[in-house]
Hints:
Elements: H1 3-9, E1 12-15, H2 29-40, E2 44-49, H3 55-65, E3 74-77, H4 78-89, E4 93-97, E5 112-113, E6 121-124, H5 139-147, E7 151-154, E8 160-163, E9 166-169, H6 171-180, E10 185-187, H7 193-207, E11 216-220, H8 223-233, E12 236-240, H9 251-261, E13 267-271
Parallel strand pairs: 1-2, 1-11, 2-3, 4-5, 4-6, 6-7, 7-10, 11-12, 12-13
Antiparallel strand pairs: 8-9
Amino acid sequence: MTMDALSKRYPVWFCDIWGVVHNGRKPFLSTTQALAKHRSRGGTVILVTNSPRTRAGVERQLLQLGVDPQSHDSITTSGDVTRELVVTHGGGKIFHLGPERDLSIFEGLNVERVSMRKAHACLCTGLFDDRSETPRDYADLLAGMKSRDLEMICANPDRIVRHGDRILYCAGALAEAYANIGGRVQMAGKPYRPIYDLALAEARRIRGSDVRLEDILAIGDGPETDIRGAAAYGLDALLVAEGVTDASDGLEAAEAKVLSLVPQARIVATMHQLSWD
């Protein structure tokens, strides 16, 4: 299906960011141009990301990377959903597991950042240093959390992300490791329903009318997050097979592999990169 046909068929696009709009270093110009063209034809683009930052924090990051603001109408983040979980599950005292660049997630919340020994829950936004560490480096810390029966609120269900030519671990990898030793985990972003509910409400607000699920196209590269989340929510999907999905054997093979992982997925198109041409 061509981009022209997709734009006519699906007025609302829920588009992933990392791996689709940019690679952590620079934007994909063909993607941002395609998103902007969809908007120019009356479409609505909601960027839906598992970033643990707030909407404002992600917008600042996109501007710094050079992403055209005309490429999207709004942003829905795992960080925004996480803030609700922190308030309802955190008991006012939170141990933050993650880099300082994610601290904007605490802005305006009536919670106190404390050490693990004093915390009521752990907010995990990622590894302290994702450039040099792996989840194996956190075995002792996670065991200590488990001994205190701390619940982990995972702000980013992504396990890995491509940063330029490198693969980096994300908060989801630590959440998986914690769950494997019996730790309690609350997940905020894709593939879980709350982030899609928030994106749908935002689309309806922007368009000033009802938006049906069949009017929405979910665009993403992650089988376990973007594609599984879209399938669970009842959305058709476009697979971008260049981020965390391996397309070295061709697009058909990449799509087949994703469908073997998520057989209920409704993939209507597969591309190396989002491009109108």
